[in-house]
Amino acid sequence: MTAIKLAWSAVGGPPAALERVTTVVREGALTARLPVRELARACTGACALAAAELGARRAGLAAVPGVRVDDGAVAAAFHSERLLRIDGRAPVAFAPLSRFWRAADGWVRSHANYPHHRARLLGALGLPDTASADEVAARIAGRCALDVEETVHGAGGLAVALRRPREWARHAQAAEVAARPLVERGRLHTARARVLPPLDPAAAPLLPAAGLRVLDLTRVLAGPVATRTLALLGADVLRLDPPHLPEPADQHADTGFGKRSAVLDLATDPGVFEDLLASADVVVTGYRPGALDRFGLHPEALAGRRPGLVVAQVSAWGAYGPWAGRRGFDSLVQAATGIAATEGTAGRPGALPAQALDHGSGLLLAAAVLRALTERSYDGCGRHVRVALARTAHWLTDEIRPEPAAGAGDEGPDARLAETDSRLGRLRYVLPPVSFAGGPADWARPPVPWGSDTARW
């Protein structure tokens, strides 16, 4: 079974709809030892097909619009955070302490892009806040990789030991991940949702998510990619962040297209969130499993207060197993699951050509939301959908098979770039890869400064 068939099946799509998908294969796109191109193509295709299906349902079309997946567009989109320019300036991808470190018996990958994660990393290593990268390297070099992993985790920081594929396969979390479906899906509540108004079949472009309200409680990168995609398709997406945890400006700019952005303290202003929830169609969260439950944001609790709600969740390690409560990011999942070892050379760890676990998981989550909305249009019931970067990693390493690479030459990323003015400055950005006949080619508005909008519809 091809990767796109696997992805479409994972989100519950009807097999017959796959005949509406065509692919433009380009040599040189997302080259790696692992089948990254196939993963990226499949996630994008499944998302575009889910969008086309929902658009056809709401517009009363006789057939689902055709979907075109171009490897060149997909590859550019999977590098969107790297290709972004703000007034000509390239974005900052990783902070100095977010990197691989040589340990006494292997390697450790840390993530310290956020100031509080940097402080916890240094504290766990017994170093002051002013410590340099050389001091961190010296401290880690004298310790075992697994010891560093557990010490930093115990301090609330982020670091994982590099594992080879067979080492990860023996880990208890790997077994839990492999036992789950690529996309977890379930029905919430029996109370019926509001009926969405039909779409004008002659509208140009056709926006399948028009009129939908989406609450975006996610952080870099997979969750914001999902909600950025829903915004492209016409949804009113309101991103909510805690006021004490600002998002890095460059990352917010890349994933903020089509959205509004507000700050909200769920602990002190629960009434504001409840007012927003009262007319929301979708809630997307990207925090550690259970981290938001104390605010009443567990899927069943949300659905009990808002019948018909679609709740979507993304996490690093999954909502199960011994690592369910751990923080994580794409780079850490690559290191722990054997991907970095597989892509490495000369005994040094490597990486995928893009943050494919983030981008792929985000597109899968958006596809699952769109399919949930299509299903809801028939029975009125809410849905719960969930993806995990570690499960996407397992799909990449163990389930996807390479597909023939013969095709058109790589058109290069420049063919997929656009420019616009914004309150953040002049932006050069990657156009969306999700494409179907009659659908949108670009977002309706550029990103806004973090937290610059009011928390209301």
The biggest sheet amounts to: 7 strands, mixed
| Model regions low in confidence, pLDDT < 50 over at least 5 residues | none
Broad shape? globular
Tell me how many strands there are.
Answer: 15
Write up what this structure looks like.
This protein is of the alpha/beta class and 457 residues long. The chain is 36% helix and 16% strand. The protein contains 17 helices and 15 strands. Helix 10 links the parallel strand 8 (213-217) and strand 9 (236-241). Helix 1 crosses helix 2 (36-59), helix 5 packs across helix 7 and helix 16 crosses helix 17. It is globular. The mean pLDDT is 95.
Give descriptors for this structure.
7-stranded mixed beta sheet, 3-stranded antiparallel beta sheet, 36% helix, alpha/beta, 457 residues
Q: How are the secondary structure elements laid out?
A:
Blueprint: H1 3-10, E1 21-24, H2 36-59, E2 67-70, H3 71-77, H4 80-83, E3 85-86, E4 100-103, E5 106-110, H5 115-124, H6 133-141, H7 145-154, E6 159-161, H8 165-169, H9 172-178, E7 184-188, E8 213-217, H10 222-232, E9 236-241, H11 249-255, E10 259-263, H12 270-277, E11 282-285, H13 299-305, E12 310-315, H14 330-336, H15 339-342, H16 356-379, E13 382-388, H17 389-399, E14 417-422, E15 425-430
Parallel strand pairs: 1-2, 8-9, 8-11, 9-10, 11-12, 12-13
Antiparallel strand pairs: 3-15, 4-5, 5-6, 7-13, 14-15
Helix pairs in contact: 1-2, 2-16, 5-7, 10-16, 16-17
Structure summary:
Helices cover 36% and strands 16% of the residues. With 457 residues, the protein is of the alpha/beta class.
